[in-house]
Amino acid sequence: MLRVGVNGYGTIGKRVADAIRVQPDMEVSGVAKRSPDYVAIGAEEAGFRVYAADEDRIDEFTAAGIDLAGTVDELVADSDVVVDATPSGVGAQNRPLYERHDTPALFQGGEDATVAEVSFNARANYDEAEDADYARVVSCNTTGLSRLVAPLHENYGIEKVRATLVRRGGDPDQTDRGPINDALPDPVSIPSHHGPDVQTVFPELDIDTIGLKVPTTMMHVHTVNVTLENEPDDATDIRERLRSEDRILTIPEYAGIDGAGTLKDFALDAGRPRGDIWENCVWEESITLQGRDLYLMQAIHQEADVVPENVDALRALSGHLTGPESRSLTNETLGIGFSQFAGRDDLTLDRQTAD
Amino acid sequence: MLRVGVNGYGTIGKRVADAIRVQPDMEVSGVAKRSPDYVAIGAEEAGFRVYAADEDRIDEFTAAGIDLAGTVDELVADSDVVVDATPSGVGAQNRPLYERHDTPALFQGGEDATVAEVSFNARANYDEAEDADYARVVSCNTTGLSRLVAPLHENYGIEKVRATLVRRGGDPDQTDRGPINDALPDPVSIPSHHGPDVQTVFPELDIDTIGLKVPTTMMHVHTVNVTLENEPDDATDIRERLRSEDRILTIPEYAGIDGAGTLKDFALDAGRPRGDIWENCVWEESITLQGRDLYLMQAIHQEADVVPENVDALRALSGHLTGPESRSLTNETLGIGFSQFAGRDDLTLDRQTAD
Predict the structure, then answer these.
(1) pLDDT number for residue B346
(2) Percent of chain B having pLDDT more than 90?
(3) Where are chain B's structural domains?
(4) A50 sits in which H/E element
(5) Alpha-carbon distances of A6 from A75, A149, A244, B179, B209, rounded to whole Å
(6) What is the pLDDT of residues A297-312, one digit of tens each?
(7) Helix H segments across chain B?
């Protein structure tokens, strides 16, 4: 039983902790939190051992009636491996702590790639993390792009990827984030850092990305152009390949899911914890082929898509399961994949041909 | 076992159907839906018998692979009582259908009060619906105001209520709603219809309301001023009374819940289905007393707060439980009330005094 410490119990950390909890081969040794707010209280209510990430604020936890199990140093000492889900940049500062305890660790995509030996995506390069002590699970956007690139690369070969990332301004609980009425070129320099980040997973891939930020907190939306090396038969061929991917949901036209709002409503109706959508969401109507140029649009749930990747990365580091074994166990335990549209494929074809 | 038909399976209808399903004394005979979209597919996935609300669109359901149990007329015939959760105005058009079948029905707050004999709020006037065949569950905003007015009226007497309702522009799935960057006086005439609507529950109450719409889909936020007849000892006295209300959550300062975004995040962390918040959410720091003038701010989840009221209204119509019995059974079965802040009251006091 792998004992996993979660350092940083925010948007990602709390989700990764819940995901680890339902795995048969790992358990949460505890979670470290900086401030004693409703999220920390939620961790205690959920039955996690709570550790103070900042020794200077222990009194605040006591004042909020939260029983601390200790400090983050003690959490690391009591863990076989640590998932660092602290804010961008803090993870790198924490690495010496993990080294001191000779404890392997996972970092998140907000850190520079140099924080770990390998940048990880379960679908693309699981094996590369098997001998590593430190791995970095790439960001939500890079994860979303990597999941799309992998099957296209394998089946058709990729000449070049061009993508525009229309990014959410902040998460639902980040009430201090903007913009509130703008579409910000962010970063304004081209390519954005996302392309090079995808290259940490696919070193040979030719990819340029452009980023913006818009006033939404729900999901990122990518417009993607992939110039393929070999021309597919038709768009349906692409759609079928994407449909067969375990962490890609293709949205049929008849579903009436027209944006992130309806996607979240759909996920909540489906009983997803926190309404989380772990899968890339590709609109089938957007899958378009012009010769070797493939175009499509996909939505990425920034709070959720890296969660199963973190679980798989833990297994890659500990090396006791292969990538396919780990992915399928993670999918099964979390409940990844939607049954709603299964067996309705023909209808989609009919409808799309009819239109 | 009360057999309840749900006519209109949208934001409210699907939640009411799920709530009825967990009641020991009632069951869902079926749900009627207008269009075969992801929500209709979700109803089928959830195991509800799906009926076509519009006979002209039966082919569309077939095309989407949804097995219809029949038409709405058959649903009404097969139900002891119907919850009409169709869009505003459609409910009134449906009343003849229910009369034709001599079937009692509940309507929603979007209808004029004249659609039914009584306008209903479980906390305020449960008994008045006991002899009715048709009742109207007042709107989310009116429900939120009624829950607040009831205990203040009983404990201190109310001279006058003045409230500004900062309303969400639309629900998360209503991607065609606005405004996207404005604060609209809506209605621009004062008082807004909300005040008179509260008077359908409290005929003697002196209340003026003003309404606006803002670019959010999460919750309504009310700023409320209540001039009490009898001056309370202090704001803490008010807070304790509100805390003792079963469908009011008072938010302590230390929770760090600063708006609707954090409230929804809190509810999702707590495992609430669809992140629903059935309770009024009153910020404790906002509870302020100036002589007999009470001021406070509360958030109302427009998708959820009327759901338990619909369940209680069904029992009031069937008349087999008293108001307190029904409310407590509904609270227990749905899981209304949060344990997160229980037993931390003293801390709140300390913290608030300290600040």
Answers:
(1) 58
(2) 94
(3) 2-138+306-334, 140-300
(4) strand A50-52
(5) 8, 30, 32, 41, 48
(6) 999 999 999 999 999 9
(7) 11-21, 38-45, 58-63, 72-77, 90-100, 122-125, 140-156, 194-199, 235-243, 260-269, 307-318, 323-334, 345-354
Query: Residue written as tokens 């159907």?
Result: B17
Q: B167: helix, coil or strand?
A: strand
Q: Is residue A182 less than 8 Å (CB to CB) from chain B? A: no
DSSP per-residue codes, B130-160: TT-SEEEEPPHHHHHHHHHHHHHHHHH-EEE
d(CA B111, CA A76): 59
Please list the residues that pair with A68 across neighbouring strands.
Answer: A50
pLDDT for the residue B355: 39
How far apart, in whole angstroms, are the C-alpha atoms of residue A195 and residue A145? Answer: 9
Query: What is the dihedral sign for C-alpha B262, A111, A190, A305?
Result: negative
CATH fit for domain A2-138+306-334, picks 2.40.30.10, 3.40.50.720, 3.40.720.10, 3.40.50.300: 3.40.50.720
Token pair belonging to B134: 């048709």
In CATH terms, the superfamily for domain A140-300 is: Dihydrodipicolinate Reductase; domain 2 (3.30.360.10)
Q: Is A273 on the interface with B (CB under 8 A)?
A: yes
Nearest to B347 among A63, A261, A351 (CB): A63
**A28-49 tens-digit pLDDT:** 999 999 999 999 999 999 999 9
pLDDT of A353 over the 60 cut: no
Cα angle A259-A263-A269, degrees, rounded to a multiple of 5: 150
Site of tokens 């309702």: B165
Specify whether the CB–CB gap between A44 and A140 falls below 8 A: no
Nearest Cα residue to B294 out of B165, B161, B112: B161
Residue ranges with strand state E in A66-177: 68-71, 81-84, 105-107, 118-120, 134-137, 158-168
Burial annotation A302-330 (CB, 10 A radius, 16+ → b, else e): bbbbbbbbbbbbbbbbbeebebeebbebb
Angle at B338 between CA B333 and CA B341, to 5 degrees: 155
CA distance A355 to chain B (A): 13
* SS3 at position B281: strand
Among this protein's residues, is B281 annotated catalytic?
Answer: no
- Residue A156: which of A243, A235, A250, A251 has the closest Cα? A235
Total CB pairs under 8 A between chain A and B: 120
pTM of the model: 0.93
CB atoms within 10 A of CB B104: 18
Interchain pair B37, A265: CB under 8 A: no
Give dist(CA A306, CA A308) in Å, integer.
6
**Dist CA B54 CA B74 (whole Å):** 12
Q: How far apart are CA B236 and CA A181, in angstroms?
A: 39
Q: Give the three-state DSSP class for A41.
A: helix
pLDDT of residue A355: 39
| DSSP SS3 for A43 | helix
Report the C-alpha gap between A77 and A8 in whole angstroms. 16
> Are A267 and A322 contacting, i.e. CB atoms less than 8 angstroms apart?
no
- CB distance A38–B257 less than 8 Å? yes
C-alpha B265/C-alpha A170 separation (Å) is 13
Beta bridge partners of A81: A4
